[in-house]
Design brief:
There is one protein chain. By secondary structure, the protein is an alpha/beta fold. It has eleven helices and 13 strands. The strands form four sheets. The protein has a seven-stranded parallel β-sheet, with helices on both faces. It has a two-stranded parallel ribbon with strand order 7-10. Strands 8-13 form a two-stranded parallel sheet. The termini are far apart.
Length: 344
């Protein structure tokens, strides 16, 4: 049994909870999950425990309050690393309230880095986003693709976060970090027992689709006049469990000191660009349900098209996405049906 600990911030969130499952099932670390349930539910932890049959520390902290961070985390010793998920992540919400996003996403990051420095925690993994690329001049994007102007305050907070980590890493010789740029995480655990559970109305495509299929939401496709193969926005959708698996591989990569640079950067995508309409059709196929949707105007903050070159993650981390688009949609649908049964 590994006696060292890993702190996971935002552990009750969508990607955080799936990463808890992978950590508990596949490593011997003592897991400390931090969340204040601002856009998640404490019940998510019960789902993690049910799936893994394992326990972990669950700490309620507002990471924007450093006093809380210090008081509630200082009692834990031998911390091998931090995986930092905690952030607000809605593009339209960030456009509507940019100050909220800058305050939360930047302060939570600087506070957890301050704690890492105080406790000399050497290994750090940061959740970044393909939104940092903006409207890239060529596709697919590699880690070396020049970043364009962010199309939303959310994307800008991720650009700023990456810079903060670079400067922090350069000024602390003992500190190593991995920045993971997610493309579009979708789907749910293949058991159907846990998935995306936003507290407010969802902004991500998959839960909107599955809620629409059960009559609890309405689906608007924003824009059908983009310069793409079918006129709809193109994204690189990747299964949430594949994203979670990449965090385990990234953690091992820096803990085992296989990293060639102090700040390592990886794209996490399948490498395939898929249009919004293709996602809708995939869902209709695996669920045998016809979706009722409407076409609306373009939405402010949306990038036209982005998908990944993931060769670096494959080569350096030994990471290979296992799940295809049908798996993503089927697992999301199984999760929605689980919620329907629980709420009936």
């Amino acid at each position: 049994m590994n006696s060292s600990s890993i702190i996971v911030t935002g552990g009750a969130g969508y990607i955080g909870s799936h990463t808890l499952i992978e950590l508990l099932n596949n490593t011997g670390y003592n897991i400390i999950s931090v969340d204040n349930f601002s856009n998640s539910s404490e019940s998510t932890y019960n789902r993690v425990r049910e799936i893994t049959s394992k326990n972990f520390h669950a700490i309620n902290i507002d990471l924007c309050d450093y006093t809380q961070v210090e008081e509630k985390l200082s009692g834990f010793g031998n911390i091998a690393g931090i995986i930092h998920f905690a952030a607000f992540k809605s593009v339209p919400d960030s456009v509507a309230d940019p100050i909220l996003y800058y305050h939360n996403n930047i302060n939570s990051l600087t506070n957890i880095l301050k704690f890492a420095k105080e406790k000399q925690i050497a290994n750090f993994i940061f959740s970044s986003s393909c939104s940092v690329y903006g409207n890239a001049e060529s596709l697919p994007v590699t880690e070396d693709t020049p970043l364009q102007k962010a199309e939303s305050p959310y994307g800008h907070t991720k650009q700023i976060g990456e810079e903060i980590i670079r400067f922090f890493s350069n000024s602390n010789p003992w500190f190593n970090s991995v920045i993971l740029r997610y493309f579009n995480p979708v789907g749910a655990h293949m058991s159907g027992k846990i998935g995306e559970l936003p507290i407010s109305k969802p902004n991500n495509l998959a839960p909107i689709i599955t809620q629409t299929a059960v009559g609890k939401n309405s689906l608007t496709v924003f824009g059908n006049d983009y310069n793409t193969r079918d006129g709809y926005c193109i994204r690189d959708y990747i299964h949430v469990t594949d994203i979670a698996d990449a965090h385990l591989k990234a953690l091992a990569y820096i803990v085992e000191k296989r990293n060639k640079e102090k700040v390592s950067l990886f794209n996490l995508g399948t490498g395939n660009g898929v249009s919004v309409m293709e996602v809708i059709h995939a869902f209709e196929k695996v669920s045998n349900k016809k979706l009722d949707y409407k076409i609306g105007p373009r939405r402010e903050g949306d990038v036209v098209a982005v998908y990944a070159n993931n060769n670096r993650a494959k080569k350096e981390l030994g990471w290979n996405p296992k799940y295809n688009l049908d798996d993503m949609m089927l697992s999301a649908w199984k999760w929605q049906l689980t919620l329907e049964r629980e709420n009936s």
